[in-house]
Amino acid sequence: MARAPPNDDNSVYRALRYLARFAVWSYFRNVKVICRSPISQQGPLLVAANHMNMVLDPAVLIATFPHDRPCHFWALARFFRIPVAGQILKAGGILPVDTKTRSNAKLFESTLDCLSKGGVIAVFPEGTSYTAPQHLPFKDGLSWAAYEFLSQHSRISIVPVGITYTTKNKWRSDVIVEYGEPIELEINELEGFQREPKTTVKKLTEQIAQGVEQGTINSPDWDTLHAAAEARYLLFGDARGVRLEDYVRVSQSLIDVFHPRHEAEDEDRKELKHRLLLFHKTLGQLHLSSLDIAMYENREITLKQAMLRLVSTWTALALQIPLFLPGIIINSPIYLLARVAEHFEKYTESVSQDKVVLSVVTAIPLYGTLFYKTWQYLGYSMTGFFLAIALMPILAWYHMALVDTRYDMAKQVMASWRICVAVLSSISGFDAGPRHELDHAVQLRRWCHIHTKTLLLELAESGDAHARYLVDYGQPLFQKP
């Protein structure tokens, strides 16, 4: 058995893992981990993952990696020369990469040392975090490191990982982590690298990118991504209408159905995509979702219906207030700062990072003060000390256990309020615009719903594999109109 890398699973890394798990648990509603193939419990591994969500991506890997194996990440060597930061990075298992050297052996010195001792090194080959409809081009650093290691050892495995967020910048959304089929490099493949290193490295990088693509959602453009998302909402409801283990494939299948390459040959499909995008834009203007107006698809929106829905949703939420209000009050500074972060952060990929960092920074003094006040109330006794300590995680768990359903109820109240205001503004003569937009959205939803199902049925009958999968997955929703 290989020796463990230095600082592997030490106290600093264990603390980092607990912090990552807490961040992931508190930020995401559901975390779905999929392993397409067993991950080795020991031995060197290279891991390649997409990088859409800044610090949340490494946190997700640390929190979910199979067998609790510690993950080492790359950082520029110059950061290790900063006195305190360098010590923290080293203690946390971060590996220095000297990009100024021309020698691959020097560039990957710490990487090769870690791998030779059976470590796991996780890399984001895109090189930066981003917000785009498809992943960025992969850089070759991981492939070079793999072949450099292979020049000294008999084999190395590369595990492609796809990280998919249902709504990456929103609290209590979901995340799917898919560990794909490992790419096995054997010693006999070293000959091609020695003969044509750049070409061989490029081929491996392309293979790694394809592995990551299988576990992620990639669209040729934003329009196709938005059209596919609205079609998914129409067919299956919100994000929880599709099982998380199927979310990537369902989404990717719809993207293929609405791919721009089909538009020249299929005017009906082009028109459907256009209306789905118009529906998406109209919902954005109304600050509503497809699910918010689903009940009006087969009925007229009247003031009576709008008022009844507002009263019923508000009453249902009000009855729950005694249960979750204490948690909301205690955690209100965290929520307030998270809202501020979302408002001022201009980069979508940084919103969740800002929220998590501010939440942790705020939670420490917040719960520290709560602990002190509780201990003070209990007379500074030893028993009171331990009771106060035990109470803090219980309060956090209690709040998180209750918040999801009540958060959904609060969103229903807001949607009902917006619909009611739109109807009232039209009746009062104040502003008929919102009501017209609302009626237009309902009409678009009805039309798109019918034509999306019709299109998929026709494509499935003609042999389209993606449509066939969607129809089979959605049975018995797909009945011919």
TrEMBL record:
Stored Pfam families: Acyltransferase (PF01553)
Keyword Transmembrane: yes
Transmembrane segment boundaries: 314-336, 356-372, 378-398
Keyword tags: Membrane, Transmembrane, Transmembrane helix
MF-aspect GO terms: glycerol-3-phosphate O-acyltransferase activity; glycerone-phosphate O-acyltransferase activity
Taxonomy, superkingdom: Eukaryota
Domain Phospholipid/glycerol acyltransferase: 45-166
GO biological process: phospholipid biosynthetic process
Keyword Membrane in record: yes
Name assigned to this protein: Phospholipid/glycerol acyltransferase domain-containing protein
